[in-house]
Amino acid sequence: MIRSPRRCRTSGVVPPRVALGALAVFATLAPAAAQTQTRVRFSLDFQGPLMGVTATPGGPPITDGDLLVRRGSPFDPELPRIVLPGSFLGAYANCAGHAPGVACGLEINALSFGQDARLQRDTDYRFLVYLSVDEFANGRPILPGGGVPTIFTEALSDEAAADVFAREFVGPGPFPNLPASSAAVADGDGQASTPNVNLVAGLGIDEPISRTSGTPDDGSNLDALDLGQPFSPLLDRVYFSLQGGFPFCNEPTTPNFDAAANQQLPTGGTATAGDILFTFQGGFPGLYAAAVDLGLDGAGRGTDDIDALTLVENGIPGYQPPTGPYSWVGPNATDLLLFSLRCGSRTLGQPDSISGLPMTEGDILIKFDGDPLPGIFIAAESLGLETIARGGMSNDELDAMDFRDPGEEPLDDCNMNGVEDLVDILDGTSMDCDGNGIPDECEKPGSRVCDCSVSADSACGNTANAEEGCANNLGLGGSVEGLGTSSIATDALELSFSQLTPSTFAIVVLGEVNASTTVGNGRLCLGPFAGVPGTPRRISTQPTGPAGSFTFGPGLLSSIASSPAGSIVSIGTTVGFQAWYRDNGGPCGQGSNFTNALAVTLTP
Description:
Distance between the termini: 25 Å
Number of strands: 26
Strand content: 15-25%
Shape: elongated
Structural class: mainly beta
Number of helices: 6
Largest sheet: 7 strands, antiparallel
């Protein structure tokens, strides 16, 4: 099940605020342990624009056989870093540096480190499925609420293929067709497709990727995924599957190459796209589980292609298949291997061994020992994937996945409570009134505008730093920033003013942000709202105190709403705030000055 998000409250009580200055979305990423320990490891398909690009000076070019990791600040990501080059693959020597859109026989399209969530039978057990889709996915038009981006909303902007989504499940499986959606937890380029929304942490890859771009693609398709601790080449085994050679359902004329058939095995012969292989310390790949062990290739060798996998290895060499549900728990635990098949695989459409329903390319499958075919463990619909073909395209395809327990380090945990931010929002333990996928307690509302860093904007050349007003008698620029949230319902917005003349008075001014006018020693950047008489409007007079600072709010939105300017307190309206303060002895010989301005778009 997906839990409904808590509604933004209408009472004057607001949730406790954490140290917002350290956690601001637009500032340097907070030094939370969860933010630095959990890694997003992934690969890209051969058609994207990063193929052949050198991510680090003097380093190897990116290929579709490399394992990559996001680096830098997630909200301002650099190109991903290669943590394991595909040099262990037989075709690497000939293919490294190949151009985008050139199928060369390297592509890894399913990935696990063998340490994923060991699913439990308990009714209260909760786990997260992280997943990615390709550029042809539509997503189910079912929204979890709170404005959280989903496969459906991102697909509308052609920005789903580079993203990572997550869906929480509760209790034991199998999980049938449930009305659900998966919400975004990592964005391809870290840039929102919706104005005024900073989506979620970025991976440093390209988007959008259009469905009609042809070959090569104009954006990146995340093609394999694993989340976890930093990769150790000396300790970690990497389990993977390689691309098969049959045509792509939605791009039948795009040249393809059977990467699996290109890979020799130590036991002789070559791999198939339904095999699970492994490498250790970057060595020559070995066979972990053959396609036939997974109920695949019944229509002939190479007729199925594993497109996503998750694995819990029991520590015994080789593959010990599950003998039934939850045989992977207990003293004689088997391995737990779940997978999905690429569109065009011949096993798809056949009745699964659990429910008798036809398998689709969005289903998560499991093969129990003794059953002839895999069974559907999690139905595609329960992941928010569409199984009704639209616009001449096939069903939505599950392109990558990983399973994680709630106790593991979250991917994004801005409030440092040990819970994935997305789960906080959907579970109601955090509010997201502005609908940007980030708990409200972790961000500062509004944008700081109208600074005085350029001489032409100043009253007399009295410039100051960025995000400050013009320099005052202290040689500093008065500053305003937002705290709390931009939600009308919570009315928790606070304005924090600093670097003002001490022990005097300041007037808080409300208006529409527009072109500036020099007034006194500073600049006024607020004007009247169209059709709202009496704006700009003085809404409060406050003492600056001995420190030259003060905070105004919460409750200021309800105060404005009860005034003649009350009509501007509506969802989607952008309001501006400044402080006009005494500045006797200021550099321009005038007696007053202004802070910079804060522009806040009001949310539900």
